[in-house]
Design a protein that fits this description.
A hairpin with a 7-residue loop joins strand 4 and strand 5. The protein has one domain. It has two helices and five strands; from the N terminus they run H-E-E-H-E-E-E. The protein is 32% helix and 20% strand. Strands 1, 2, 3, 4 and 5 form a five-stranded mixed sheet that branches.
Amino acid sequence: MAPAQRMMGVVLPVVLVVLTILTGLVVTQIRRTAVDERLAANTRESVQLDSSVQTVLRWCEARITLAPQTTAQVPAPTTSVYPPWGPASANWTITANSLDFSGGAGLLPGLNADPSCVIENATCELAPPISPTGQSGTSACAGNGELDARWRKFRITARVATPAPDMIGGNRFTFAQSELRLFIE
């Protein structure tokens, strides 16, 4: 009889190494997929918010075009450090200074609060002479005596909010701004 020989198995360590490598690849791929999903969700939310805020901005422009004299406006600041349309401005909560769209949150996807606009009367920023006839009008702006009084300039800032549980306060705000110049007869 031959002496008992000790058998050395190579298969078990090789299989364990292969399984460890495969497990690492699967875990890496799962993490990568999760990151890709978060990036896609962030992009979707950004596009959705941008679309909503641009829609609100067009609503505000239409409101000013239809009734420029009766639309809620914030007077232009004289020495204010913070603009009247800034994110922390009180004008967003004062209904006399902002144009709110009640029920607008239900019309636009992803919003949790009614959209609103702050409309600044920026007529004094117009550079004279800006009259089509070359006539001078009585201007309400100091130093702009050549400005035709029928011209108006509005700076419109729209704001929409969406739920953001990952942020303090729970809301993510998106802003858009435009300027509108009108000649009022």
